Every structure is written in structure tokens, then in C-alpha cells.
Amino acid sequence: MLASGCCGYGDELARFVDLSRLGAIMVKGTTREPRAGNPPPRIAETPSGLLNSIGLQNPGVDAVIRDKLPWLAQLGVPVIVNVSGALVSDYVYCAERLEDAPTANAIELNVSCPNVKAGGIMFGTDEAALREVTAAVRTVFDRTLIVKLTPNVTNIARLAVAAQEAGADAVSAINTLVGMAVDVGTRRPAIHNTVGGLSGPAIKPVAVRCTWEVARAVDIPVIGMGGISTAEDALEFIIAGASAVAVGTASLVDPEVYLEVVDGIGAFCEAEHVKLRDLVGSLKLWDVCG
To answer: Which positions are annotated as active-site residues?
Structure first.
């Protein structure tokens, strides 16, 4: 899949890759009203990663439905709309609008947003808040509902269980890690918002661990993501328990990385004489006594 936030709405990548070969497109974060995003600088390169605080820049859900989804529908690839908000009612509004847009095959809830009603705590770090927003969206959206889990918690498996029990059909693991970088020359934070989301190869070991923990805790599919740059990276997530994977930051270096991952997974399965579904969750733990 194309991970939310790095592929826009797909059209900017269409001249580089055949998007119809992919499993799904997760479009960038969508909110109730249009958002201009945070002031620059909004991204900073870090060792083996990228720090960003875009601020959910988007034209708003109504514009996405009107101007973006019709083109995406022509690709014949499932479209997953990432939805964000500051209140439960924001998520519900977007879900209701997308329920009336059949070209939106699924919703991915970005629960790494501050819940302003609860004093700014992220929806995804509090079980009660996560249950509330997931259940509320479930009541108004009948198609596939995915919850994108934040790794910035002490027990991500418990949050995954909460999402499942509240009606989620699948979970994404993981969203970005909270990080910070400093420009020593100017003595200012590298990005205007001071802290931002860290993505890229640097977070892959954390993402694989989270995927493994979540997959053992829930019965619904897990979409693994976080630092995937190669087919081998993707296979790590699959063996750890992911039923599907998404690639994001690596596309900023190589727009064709998606197809390289797809082809590489196919080549591995052929060489190993295995079916992809048989690799899901096939991790073999070391014997305790060995």
C-alpha cells in the first residue's frame, strides 16, 4: 500500500509508477475543514529518517470527495481515506460524508491527534478515548474501518484490543514516533513546531516489534508500516504478523520503491516456494533453552 502522508492523493506519483499494481492507496490526512498546515520549516532530515510536522494540510473532506476521489476511482485500486480531527464529532462528520462516497473503500482513523475536549491528550494514547472515537465512527460508516495506532504508548497491544472491541476491522502499526532535532548553528529546533513525527528506516525495529505485539493480541488484520524501504523490510513485518504493508517515507527518495517492494516479495516467495499468506505470522522464536 501507499502509506498516508507521503503519496498525496496518488496523482503526483502516477507518472512514475503504475498505481494499479498496488494493494491500496492511503491518501493523506483529511479533516472536516480545510487546513493550511503548520508554518515552515516543516520537515527535517535526520540520520536514517525524516522528522515532519506538516500539520494535516489538506483541502477538507468535501473537497477530497469532490476533487480527488473520482480520479482515484479510475485506478481500480482500493482507496483508504485517512481521517483526523480534534473532536469525536470531527471524525464522525468525515465518516458520514465518506459513507456517501462509495469510491472511499475504507477509512483509516489517525488517532495520533490531540483530543481538545480531553485537554489535548491524543486519542490513541487513551483506551477510553480510542474506544469512543472508533465506536462513534463505526456507527456511521459501514465499510472497512482501520485504526492507525500510535507507538507513543507503553502498551500498544492494549490499544489495539480496544480498537478491535470498539468495531475496527483492522489496525495499522505504526504511526510516527515523536522526535526532535536541533540546528546547532541557529540554536533553534529544526522544525517550526519544535517536535514532530519521526519516520523512515530509523523506526523500523520499533515498528516491527509493535506489529508483532499487536498481531499476537488481536484477531483482525494488521497493516505493518514504518521504515519499509525494501522487500526484505516488508517481509520482516509480514513474518512478524502483518497481513499487508504500507510504504511511505522511502518514496521521497525513490518514487518507484513501491514496485520494487512488490516485485521483491514475489521473487522471494517464488525462490522459497511459499505462498505469501503462509508467511504471515510465521515467526519462529528462539528456544528458551537454546
So the answer is: 113
**Structural domain count of the chain:** 1
The pLDDT > 70 percentage for the chain reads 98
* Crossing angle for the helix pair 204-217 and 156-165, to the nearest 10 degrees: 50
In this prediction, residue 101 carries a pLDDT of 95
* pTM check: above 0.90: yes
Q: Within its chain, how far is the Cα of 273 from the centroid? A: 30
What's the CATH code of the domain at 151? 3.20.20.70
